[in-house]
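Input structure tokens:
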């Protein structure tokens, strides 16, 4: 191999570059990123950057000196537009083609939109520029409607509410974060938001955005009622950024489809939010939009490109910060899992829960319980038997207040 190209210059792309150098790759290394900024961290965008607790520079992942030491041909502000697998070429938006012997795809995901998303006052949040634009809008003291109560939507709502704004969240599911964590944790998250004065409209969809003179004026719900809004944040989930790979012969179902080695084709690997791979630990295919996974998977993909041939079998980890609460989760959280409290009590705002599925512990979740959840993680790693937990009380359905 003479040249390795990495497309996507963020958490996964940067980690892959560092891992390759760390592992002794001395050949040419090119890192291509569409954004103009050097690699930066996204989790603070919906937290410290929105509230203003951090200055924007603080999200930068490496100094310019660190990047120079990597001896990487860094192509910022350049979009990859096509991949020629057989010819080993990545085409760029400026017409240039870059040849490669090894390729790592780390292009992440792109936010979903609604029709009329181009009205002024309608925001999505994926990039640093999105976050700075949204913060500037929030500083004008608007009425805010957040569409979607997944992690991103609930974090944005918490940040906006912390800034003292009037915030309403609209969500078609009966409770927030239901898909990742289920009804019971979702109800606790709903209560957390209500306790902080955020309004929730759950179990109802958005019919359309309303606007006048090119500006958003509100959100019309499925039952015809309207929520007036000066700022609308669309937090509708994301789609893998694979459009540039269309027609490349790579399998693109939910992201770039890889095997257990994170390999999409000979010499071509994928990592981070864009990669779907078979996780042998759980015996299932998954694609994770988790910060820790971007790092771990990029290291694995880089190692496998250099010949490790090691299956990537992590226990997924995710955290979210909302108001004064940190939720941390290791493992998987199937909708039909049995959920039991194994430490503390939700009433006290500090507890840990375990998720059992098919007789095994498959996930643990901590609510302001970092030490306990770190200890319990071992049970997911070891695929411990669920029997021991069936003697502790099941997590009672929390009441909505
Ligand atoms: C606001 C926000 C808050 C988050 N909070 C948390 C959290 O609290 N906890 C947690 O675990 N995770 C969180 N995440 C998720 C975490 O940030 C992601 O999992 C992580 O950033 C994924 O890294 P990545 O490198 O795979 O993709 P990305 O960070 O999305 O980077 C992909 C890069 O590729 C570039 N790119 C795309 N297409 C092309 C192309 N064709 N050519 C060139 N470049 C291209 C993109 O511009 C982007 O810079 C959050 C994400 C966001 C957006």
């Amino acid at each position: 191999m003479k040249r390795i190209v990495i497309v996507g210059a963020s958490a996964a792309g940067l980690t892959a570059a560092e891992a390759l150098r760390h592992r002794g790759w001395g050949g040419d290394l090119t890192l291509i990123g569409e954004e103009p900024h050097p690699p930066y961290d996204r989790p603070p965008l919906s937290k410290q950057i929105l509230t203003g607790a951090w200055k924007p520079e603080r999200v930068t992942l490496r100094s310019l000196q660190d990047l120079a030491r990597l001896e990487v041909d860094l192509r910022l502000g350049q979009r990859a537009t096509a991949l020629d697998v057989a010819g080993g070429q990545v085409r760029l938006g400026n017409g240039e083609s870059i040849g490669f012997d090894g390729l790592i795809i780390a292009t992440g995901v792109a936010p979903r939109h609604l029709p009329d998303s181009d009205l002024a006052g309608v925001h999505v949040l994926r990039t640093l520029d999105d976050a700075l634009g949204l913060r500037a809008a929030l500083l004008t003291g608007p009425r805010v409607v957040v569409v979607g109560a997944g992690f991103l939507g609930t974090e944005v709502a918490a940040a906006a509410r912390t800034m003292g704004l009037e915030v309403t969240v609209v969500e078609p599911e009966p409770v927030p974060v239901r898909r990742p964590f289920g009804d019971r944790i979702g109800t606790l998250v709903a209560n957390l938001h209500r306790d902080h004065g955020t309004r929730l409209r759950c179990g109802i969809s958005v019919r359309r955005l309303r606007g006048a003179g090119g500006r958003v004026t509100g959100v019309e719900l499925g039952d015809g009622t309207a929520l007036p809004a000066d700022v609308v944040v669309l937090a509708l989930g994301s789609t893998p950024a694979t459009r540039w790979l269309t027609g490349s012969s790579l399998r693109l179902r939910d992201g770039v489809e890889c095997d257990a080695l994170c390999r999409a084709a000979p010499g071509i690997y994928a990592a981070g939010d864009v990669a779907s791979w078979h996780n042998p630990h759980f015996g299932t295919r998954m694609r994770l939009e988790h910060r820790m996974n971007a790092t771990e998977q990029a290291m694995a993909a880089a190692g496998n490109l250099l010949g490790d041939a090691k299956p990537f079998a992590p226990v997924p980890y995710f955290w979210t910060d909302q108001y004064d609460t940190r939720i941390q989760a290791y493992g998987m959280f199937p909708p039909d899992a049995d959920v039991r409290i194994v430490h503390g009590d939700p009433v006290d705002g500090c507890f840990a829960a375990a998720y059992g599925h098919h007789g095994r512990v498959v996930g643990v979740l901590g609510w302001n319980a970092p030490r306990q959840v770190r200890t319990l993680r071992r049970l997911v790693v070891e695929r411990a038997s669920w029997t021991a937990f069936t003697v502790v009380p099941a997590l009672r359905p929390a009441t909505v207040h």
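The chain has nine helices and 28 strands. The first strand starts at residue 3 and ends at 7.
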